[in-house]
Amino acid sequence: MSKKLTPRDKDYSKWYNELVVEANLAENSAVRGCMVIKPYGYSIWEKMQAELDSKFKATGHENAYFPLFVPKSLFEAEEKNAEGFAKECAVVTHYRLKTDPEDGSKLIVDPDAKLEEELVVRPTSEAIIWNTYKGWIQSYRDLPILINQWANVVRWEMRTRLFLRTAEFLWQEGHTAHATKAEAIAETEQMNNIYAEFAENFMAIPVIKGKKTESERFAGAVDTYCIEALMQDGKALQAGTSHFLGQNFAKAFDVKYASKEGGLEHVWATSWGVSTRLMGALIMTHSDDKGLVLPPKLAPVQVVIVPIYKGEEQLNQISEVANQLAADLRAAGISVKYDNRDTHKPGWKFAQYELQGVPVRLAIGPKDLEKGSVELARRDTLTKEFVAQTEVVDKITGLMVEIQDHLFNKAKSYRDNHITEVDTFEEFKEVLKAKGGFISAHWDGTPETENKIKELTKATIRCIPFDGEVKEGNCVFTGKKSAQRVLFAKAY
Amino acid sequence: MSKKLTPRDKDYSKWYNELVVEANLAENSAVRGCMVIKPYGYSIWEKMQAELDSKFKATGHENAYFPLFVPKSLFEAEEKNAEGFAKECAVVTHYRLKTDPEDGSKLIVDPDAKLEEELVVRPTSEAIIWNTYKGWIQSYRDLPILINQWANVVRWEMRTRLFLRTAEFLWQEGHTAHATKAEAIAETEQMNNIYAEFAENFMAIPVIKGKKTESERFAGAVDTYCIEALMQDGKALQAGTSHFLGQNFAKAFDVKYASKEGGLEHVWATSWGVSTRLMGALIMTHSDDKGLVLPPKLAPVQVVIVPIYKGEEQLNQISEVANQLAADLRAAGISVKYDNRDTHKPGWKFAQYELQGVPVRLAIGPKDLEKGSVELARRDTLTKEFVAQTEVVDKITGLMVEIQDHLFNKAKSYRDNHITEVDTFEEFKEVLKAKGGFISAHWDGTPETENKIKELTKATIRCIPFDGEVKEGNCVFTGKKSAQRVLFAKAY
């Protein structure tokens, strides 16, 4: 505990890994690529879940639960989706272990318990869900279906990193079915907007909304909308995606509906998701060399109170004030922890709560008792000031908003300063190397050019942005015509 | 829709299966033994989750998340646990599919992607969690650890039934670590009490608290505490279990702590869980031949309002009243649905909401407009009355409590009438056949007698009850000495 983190400018990646573990967010497990999400990390994820869930429900979606396993024959039904996920899926082949005849303390797979059909552990649930929707949809009256699922999924990634890329991760996946193309596209847009709004207003992470190019699309989608965030090291992170699936899955699973007009039509689909990857985005947007920095809306503990005392009598006097302040703050809807443990010194506690990103720290010592004050420290600015005890609740109520805004504005200003328009490929490479961030450049619209640029620079097209001026130009690489600038970046 | 269910007295099992599907709670999926939990069923589960989660948190537990997979070498570490679950576990052996060389549209398991060590899909998480706790526990200061996980688990059951026994199910599993035996036992008891309190006060299901016999214990536990409920067909259902695990897992995973006194001791453990099986208990405790009956605390929709009208003008007039009532009810914290769809007739709606167990139905027709009344129907008693519109909120606020109590009392009186003390084995068999329910009988305490009785009657010992008089006697089967009566029943 209170071990110093590697500074970000020395080794950003090492800083990240250390922070995740030291701040008690998550750790690696005995299962290759799978993480343990520790209580503190999980409580942040729970806050994200609650907020997203209420947004989904407010827009008419309901939760449901579909099987963990996808039979191989369903998995392979939508060709592109299957192709996209086949290379990285966990496959259940047997349903029993038995005692090893050579060593009674060991178990082996029972060869007599081989499944007739292998089961894929879901990497995403379009296949199993559309096979189910087939039974639910006969007529236009059965549409739309607006369902979300909170679940675990498995993608057998070879190189994993806590939260950012793990073999198993937690996510939500929305799967909707619509009578018309227009309605499905509107849903795709709506959910991408909800993600953007959530990222910006709840997580204080500024994002750019846009569309993926064909090569970056979800396997099986007609169009992938996304929100892209920028991390402190100049790399982009895809923070959420919303897919317009066209009729691809309806065709693969033969899902048709009788229209009002009496025809028989394939159903239109969307799917959309965000995952525990957002924890990585959160960390790499706000945190510093001292540890995690949390926006108040996401902080499991918003205010920590630390007593500074010698002897029990002094502690009792301080506790009286601290408990009263805690009660008043809680009554104002603020979550508070009073840490009066005698097993740790104040300095250790200060470092620990800084590491864990508690937005506001109050320290109360004997002098504060005399003066009726407390020392208030902000985690985001690392500034301190003395505040009268009578003003603490008002002050902190205001700070909750102020800190949230400050973190967003700081991240936004960093992000805005790291969108660079370039018009030559030399400049492209220079900016990428010197500064990173998003490079706004013209592109001729072909996967060939996109791939070439990726090969040469490791930068990919993060999105074709929705907002901002649309102006024609010439591709930064081939000089061919370009309809609008797109955003390149190296990415997580 | 609004299809009539098979009456319970004709075929209880068929009635159950039909109800689950017709009331939109769940259905079978394309994956053998795995269910789809539909939005209406899932929303009831969400209410259970929210209530349990707040009870867990109020007693100091935190949520976390551990991997879905358990490497075989960890799975087999605690011998009895391994033995108990090896026969029914899904095993991941490969991490990739590839295109079938004989049929380009098919996929096959890639033999080159065989895992070095097989992974078991968790049937329960003691193994993976205790392997993790090993890294978290050094000293008494690290204890207790009070963690809960909401997760999916897989047990490859051969005969499955929706909610009651499915290959994959949802549950919560608490896993705690303690410095002393006494503390672990107190935790085991506390959680069993929380389950009992939840079942009775939230789900309106009366339960009997007790201990399992050795043969019915959780694999790897020293003691299993449980709550047992009685279904309408006279069969018992285990509704929750809380296990005192002793030092079994600490020894299997070598988890020791430095005590205050300077010694090195193995840690004491508990685990406890309830699952989507509770949905089955809910259905079979309260429902009737018309469908689901829901206690108000669990009902996703507590009040439905159905307009009875001819023509748009009448509908508009009724809607004005209905919307006002809905708003007033919502302001009183009651969930309301106003179903003004013109695609379905009132009679169809009545049947549908009866099927889905909505506790209170209000119908408003043209005469009600004149009289300022509404027709109020209770789902639990199937009674109707007219209520003045001005009194609806008060009336329904009271009914929410009354219905909840009525359902509990009704179930309790049924349960109490189905606990029969017997003193001979003849009587045992007679009562079991004629009446079912719990049979309170003396037992000599041996697994042999327990097994014999099970073979002869299919009844098992559901629990050694905690409450009630403890009196010695003679075993109903062998005549040998018995310390107290235990409860036998056929069970789900």
TrEMBL record, chains A, B:
Q: Which CDD domains match?
A: ProRS_anticodon_zinc, ProRS_core_arch_euk
| Main location as per UniProt | cytoplasm
Catalytic activity reported: tRNA(Pro) + L-proline + ATP = L-prolyl-tRNA(Pro) + AMP + diphosphate
Report the function annotation for this chain: Catalyzes the attachment of proline to tRNA(Pro) in a two-step reaction: proline is first activated by ATP to form Pro-AMP and then transferred to the acceptor end of tRNA(Pro).
> What PANTHER family is this protein classified in?
BIFUNCTIONAL GLUTAMATE_PROLINE--TRNA LIGASE, PROLYL-TRNA SYNTHETASE
Q: Where in the cell is it found?
A: Cytoplasm
The record's EC number reads: 6.1.1.15
Task: Respond yes or no to whether keyword Metal-binding is given for this record.
Answer: no
For this record, the Gene Ontology CC terms, alphabetical, are: aminoacyl-tRNA synthetase multienzyme complex; cytoplasm
User: A GO molecular function for this record?
Assistant: proline-tRNA ligase activity
Q: Might you name a Gene Ontology BP term for this protein?
A: prolyl-tRNA aminoacylation
Description of its domains? Consists of three domains: the N-terminal catalytic domain, the anticodon-binding domain and the C-terminal extension.
Q: Please list the residue ranges annotated as the Aminoacyl-transfer RNA synthetases class-II family profile domain.
A: 27-295
Q: Which superkingdom?
A: Bacteria
Pfam families cross-referenced by the UniProt entry: HGTP_anticodon, ProRS-C_1, tRNA-synt_2b
Which key words tag this protein in UniProt? Aminoacyl-tRNA synthetase, ATP-binding, Cytoplasm, Ligase, Nucleotide-binding, Protein biosynthesis
The family classification in the record reads: Belongs to the class-II aminoacyl-tRNA synthetase family. ProS type 3 subfamily.
Protein's name according to its UniProt entry: Proline--tRNA ligase
Q: What is the enzyme's main class? A: ligase
Subunit field text = Homodimer.
